[in-house]
Amino acid sequence: MKNSFYTNTKLIGLIGHPIKQSYSPFIHNIAAQFKNVDYIYLPFDVVADNLENALKGVVALGISGLNVTIPHKEKIIKYLDDLSEEAAMIGAVNTIVNEHGKLKGYNTDINGILESLMEFKDLITGSKVSVIGAGGGARAVIYTLIRHFKPEQITIINRTIQRADTLHNYFSEKMRFDNLKTADLFPPELVETFHSSKLIVNSTSVGMFPDVDDCPTNLKESFHKDQLVFDMIYNPTETKLLRLAKQQGAVTLGGLKMLVHQAAKSFELWTGEEPPVEKLSRSLELMITS
Ligand code: NAP
Questions:
Q1: CB of 163 shorter than 6 A to ligand 1
Q2: Which residue has the least CA distance to atom 40 on ligand 1?
Q3: Which residue among 51, 204, 212, 238 is best mutated to probe the pocket of ligand 1, counting the most ligand atoms within 8 A of its Cβ?
Q4: Helices 277-289 and 24-35 meet at what angle, rounded to 10?
Q5: Is residue 73 among the annotated active site residues?
Q6: Distance from C-alpha of 91 to C-alpha of 101, rounded to nearest angstrom
Q7: What is the mean pLDDT of each run of 10 residues along the chain (290 residues)?
Q8: Distance between CA 282 and CA 242 in Å, rounded?
Q9: 208 C-beta closer than 6 A to ligand 1
Q10: What is the DSSP pairing of strand 65-68 with strand 95-99?
């Protein structure tokens, strides 16, 4: 890792709370090395009350851009000057670019979700799917599923049912998709919903480091071999949910591929350079296993 920074070095940051679990600083700093561009990426633990001031700081200090993570992806929108068409449609932002003092929000999670799910397109199209969670990650996955995979039905399952209902109404109106349902995250009623889903996505933070023994559902009867279970969590690489689903024969997918692909798109938005995705993935895997 380079240890000299000069007056031309540009700064990119990550804001969220908590952010200790994040691999984004590793990915972006190594991407800058691979592409030989003079950028440094730093994490900033910012609580909701400080969001507005943090963004004023971005403009005042000339910071080139930010990633936005839990729990700010939706709330941050009201402090931005502009949104990409997709971010406006999704209602969540994970990347901000400082364009000459104006902050524009983008959503590159959709790039990561597309890259992760594309090889399973035939399984998903025309099938029932379940999305656990109703935050920023859920918005990106619901948008991507409706736009690119055309499932028969999407059930949004969340601890706080009002947030699931909000997403139901939002996407029914914005994307004119009528086949949305909502459900509480309460067993055992969920077994049938999960069991009939060809794809189950966890877009909650349940099971994320350090609470790795938590799981959004312990209903093992929910899973079977003709199913894909996708956990957006990338730390740990295999969550308890994925282990449970795998034991029942389901195909499982963790969040690392999504992480690298969303990062690659964000890096391109900030620097204009396309980072080498395969090299980034290998470096990240090496870092995690070492
Ligand atoms: P968020 O907007 O803060 O939403 C969090 C969601 O988790 C909400 O639906 C919340 O339910 C639910 N939740 C939190 N604690 C819970 C608990 N104890 N029991 C039940 N539900 C709980 O977060 P986000 O930005 O969508 O991110 C969610 C997860 O996706 C995080 O783990 C994040 O790291 C991951 N993610 C990964 C990638 C990737 O590249 N792999 C990209 C984006 C996100 P309530 O509405 O009831 O509070």
A1: yes
A2: 259
A3: 204
A4: 130
A5: yes
A6: 22
A7: 73 96 96 97 98 98 97 97 98 98 98 98 98 97 98 98 97 96 90 97 96 95 97 96 98 98 98 97 94
A8: 22
A9: yes
A10: antiparallel
